[in-house]
Automatic annotation (TrEMBL):
It comes from the Eukaryota. It comes from Symbiodinium pilosum (Dinoflagellate). Residues 60-82 have a biased composition (Low complexity). The keyword ATP-binding does not apply. Keywords: Calcium, Repeat. This is EF-hand domain-containing protein. GO terms for molecular function: calcium ion binding.
Length: 664
């Protein structure tokens, strides 16, 4: 080939298209290409392949350090070699658009580029265009340097090719603005807001990211293979490829399996899905032993491919150094109950060690922003924590190795508290979820095919009223659960005119929840989410409860005395107080809900004696019966121990008091 860069880009795009790829040539496709002696291939003899290796060896490769220190206040990837002027020009435009040196471009950053290249729509139209652009690159809210390079080099309809002269014009059109001075306190400021998530969703997304080896936003057959084996598949590579191809074919895609389809799959307890418990998902996150990939018999990989694989393995092993082990040790020390994630309470010592000195309420707000940055509503996973302490930008909280060791020494070694003796839920009807076997994986995968993949994109710009609503919501959300129960909402109801009894309010609250959209406005069986609360106070019709901005500002101050005062009217029932005390004792981490692990001591105390897997199945059925996808909230627990039917687990007051007694 001897054409120009543009001509080669067109040829390369055709090569990718012929092999069902939209981004690049993977190892399997490269092996197929150099072994293909037809007009569509590019067959290379072993001698030619060795010549390629010798030619590559004569060029000086870029120096790789074993554990490169992150660039101060910048997450921009390493510059391209100096001999590529076009790449340097693109990078200069990127850095000029990225005014605060975050290492990525938001919709606001990209707007001048869009206008210079022909866009003339409204803010809302641009927000939609930017969302589609991010989705194209497998992101929910930003464009990285590599994505920007691909975009301006892509001459297809999906790209936005810019010549060198156009790039220089873009440079001149953008004012030179210095990056803002970093704040003195290390605090995470998210680039935008993501949809509210529960810990299970965050766990599923962590599994998806771990499987997504190329970071493309979709899973290939090779990516999904560990998941298939974990859930029962034991066929050959060829059989798995056929099943995966059928799945992709049925949904009209050659790219792979998207996040939303994956979430739906592992949450589906029917015969059409492949439900995974939280414990099974965590196992998928654990490092797998290195196994030697079988060499294809028909077309053995050339020397070049083997060398590339060796280099990749060396790079991976270099990245997994002692620093990662140190970070993981700090994470485990903060995670005292070994939940697999950190709550606001867990992270507070880390925040104080790294400069935070605010009140509990201020930390709660900071932690909420931190969780939003990583796409969660209330917890930080290990991968998120690793990114946070490795991020030297304003959005991160970089810690040196010595700082991490100091954090280790500052944290006392505390053993997990012994769970109180408790009584366990009755054995629910046998309805264990059917495991995915090799024969049923294809059926289940194909039946979930055709899902419309979408990304929830929320603009990073919020109006002042929305911020007021969020402040009120957090003030009402006593346990930081991410949703409001009838008890949480009662003070708000009284402040806005309600004066009925507890029973009348419960009926009103149930009607409110039923009117809201499940999943976005309300959480089944639990309460009202932030979006549901916002729609309520913004609704001026008879169905809503519109609140003026001035009243919203006054509400937190009015609610504070109510939260500090002893709950006489609301806690007039001693039995209710007793049940709440048991719930609080079981709720390790003060999450506001009980997981299977939290409820296990209760189950054993009330008669359960099965294995962890059997208890997980029982717990999932209990949650399903009460319309909860995450865990057992207080209201559900109260209903359970007050239910004397076969479906419940009634406990007398004396039995409840025994649950609170120290274990002998």
């Amino acid at each position: 080939f001897s054409g120009s860069d543009q001509e080669w880009q067109q040829e390369f795009d055709l090569l990718c298209g012929d092999r069902g790829s939209s981004e690049g040539i993977r190892l399997d496709a490269f092996v197929g290409l150099v072994n293909d002696s037809s007009d569509d291939g590019c067959y290379c003899s072993e001698e030619e392949l060795r010549s390629l290796l010798q030619a590559r060896a004569q060029t000086t490769p870029p120096t790789l350090s074993k554990a490169p220190a992150p660039a101060a206040k910048s997450a921009v990837p390493r510059r391209a070699p100096a001999q590529d002027p076009r790449h340097e020009l693109i990078e200069a435009v990127f850095q000029q658009l990225d005014r605060d040196s975050k290492g990525y471009l938001t919709a606001k950053d990209m707007r001048p580029f869009a206008e210079q290249t022909g866009f003339s729509g409204s803010d809302q139209e641009w927000s939609s265009e930017f969302a589609l652009l991010c989705e194209q690159f497998g992101s929910s809210q930003c464009i990285l340097l590599d994505d920007f390079v691909k975009l301006v080099n892509d001459s297809s309809d999906a790209g936005c090719y810019c010549s060198d002269s156009e790039l220089r014009n873009l440079q001149q059109a953008q004012p030179q603005i210095a990056a803002p001075t970093a704040p003195p306190v290390k605090a995470a400021a998210p680039p935008g807001l993501t949809p509210m998530q529960d810990p299970r969703r965050a766990l599923i997304e962590a599994v998806f990211r771990a499987l997504d080896s190329g970071g493309t936003g979709s899973l290939t057959a090779r990516d999904m293979r560990p998941f298939a084996e974990q859930t029962g598949f034991n066929g050959s590579d060829q059989e798995w490829q056929q099943e995966f191809d059928l799945l992709c074919h049925d949904r009209g895609s050659t790219g792979g399996f998207g996040l939303d389809a994956f979430i739906s799959l592992v949450n589906d307890q029917s015969d059409d899905g492949c439900f995974c418990s939280d414990e099974e998902l965590r196992k998928l996150l654990q490092p797998r032993p290195q196994t030697t990939q079988p060499t294809p018999s028909k077309a053995p990989a050339p020397v070049a491919a083997k060398t590339t694989a060796t280099a990749r393995s060396a790079a991976v092993s270099a990245a997994q150094d002692s620093r990662h082990e140190l970070i993981e040790a700090v994470f485990q020390q903060l995670d005292r109950e070994s939940k697999g994630y950190l709550t606001a309470k867990d992270m507070r010592p880390f925040a104080e060690q790294t400069g935070f000195s605010g009140s509990d309420q201020e930390w709660s707000s900071e932690f909420a922003l931190l969780c939003e940055q990583f796409g969660s509503s209330q917890c930080i996973l290990l991968d998120d924590f690793v990114k946070l302490v490795n991020d030297s930008s304003d959005a991160g909280c970089y810690c040196s190795d010595s700082e991490l060791r100091n954090l280790q020494q500052a944290q006392p070694q505390i053993a997990a508290p012994t769970a109180p003796p408790v009584k366990a839920a009755p054995t629910a009807p046998t309805q264990a979820a059917q495991a995915c076997t090799g024969q049923t994986v294809l059926t289940r995968f194909c039946l979930v095919a055709g899902l419309k993949l979408f990304l929830w994109i929320i603009s990073p710009w919020q109006d002042p009223r929305r911020e007021l609503i969020e402040v009120v919501f957090r003030a009402l959300d006593s346990g930081g659960k991410g949703y409001l129960t009838a008890r949480d909402m009662r003070p708000f109801a009284e402040q806005t005119g309600f004066s009925g009894s507890d029973q009348e309010w419960q009926q009103e609250f149930d009607l409110l929840v039923s009117d809201l959209c499940p999943g976005t406005g309300s959480l089944h069986g639990q309460g009202i989410l932030l979006d549901g609360f916002a729609s309520l106070v913004n609704d001026s019709s008879d169905e809503g409860c519109y609140v003026l901005d001035s009243d919203l500002r006054a509400l937190p101050n009015r609610l504070q005395p109510l939260s500090q005062a002893p709950a006489v009217t609301q806690h007039s029932d001693p039995r209710q107080d007793l049940i709440e005390a048991v719930f609080t004792a079981l709720d390790w981490g003060s999450k506001g809900y009980l997981t299977a692990r939290d409820m296990r001591p209760f189950a054993e105390q009330t008669g359960f004696s099965g294995s962890d897997q059997e208890w997980q199945q029982e717990f999932d059925l209990l949650c399903q019966d009460r319309g909860s996808a995450r865990g057992f909230g207080l209201d559900a627990f109260v209903a359970l121990v007050n239910d004397s039917s076969d479906e419940g687990c009634y406990c007398s007051d004396s039995e409840l008091r025994n649950l609170l007694q120290p274990q002998s």
